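note to self — DONT lose this again. spent like an hour looking for the file last time. sequence + predicted structure for the chain T wanted, 276 res
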Amino acid sequence: MIAVELVKLLRRPRVWVAVALLCALPVVVAVFLATTHVPPPPGQGGAFLSAVLRDGSLYPAAAMAMVVPVFLPVAVAVVAGDGIAGEAATGTLRYLLVRPVGRTRLLVAKFVAVTVFVLVAVLSVVATSYLTGIIAFGAEPAAAVGQPGGVTSLSGAPLTPAGLALRLAGAIAYVAVSMLGVAAIALFLSTLTDSALGAALGALAALVTSQILATLDAAATVKPYLPTRYWLAWVDFFRDPVFWRDIERGAGIQAVYVAVLLAAAWANFATRDITS
């Protein structure tokens, strides 16, 4: 069942259109930066954008800072929201369940397919932005011991190429885990409605509400539990030493959201009448 869902996912043109659009944004930004050589003012613009003018190998981090707040969650919500609701809207859900396919297996297969989409999207953004950064800005050679130059962390300490790659891998994993929380929200809503668009919009409404509450001092008591609260904690991988507190909290919160919402989705889907 999982293999079938993966094939269906990878054959959908809109999936690849979404991935292409995610990859296009960093490319467009790189073109403007490379042609003007004008970095954002201090404190403005995405993280790492000023640093990439000196070393293009940092551009994947800048690209993730561009897509994570808005564009990647939108893509994940659309794909996940289509999981069950899309099958119900087209009338294929009842035929899927006529075969010896349990509802639990189908729900798990849908979540696995969305997880694969998240990984494909994030890795595609990182790969294309790395190539774009190297072509547009070049790569600064590693500094000799005791000499200035080379890639530096946000704390100012030098990073080896291997160290940078390891931190980037950690950031990719963290972003993927964060987006699984979005997928769980949209997939749960997908079991409540026959409208894939409604499920996606519902998930996005929940995320926008979370983002707004995160800016309010009056919501201080709930801030630590909001799904978007620690989305940008992956930046802490590029500090030396790594700041683990927010990373651990963010991963833990997403794990709770995924577990609770998938359980709720299963409870609803297992008892749902799909004959009508």
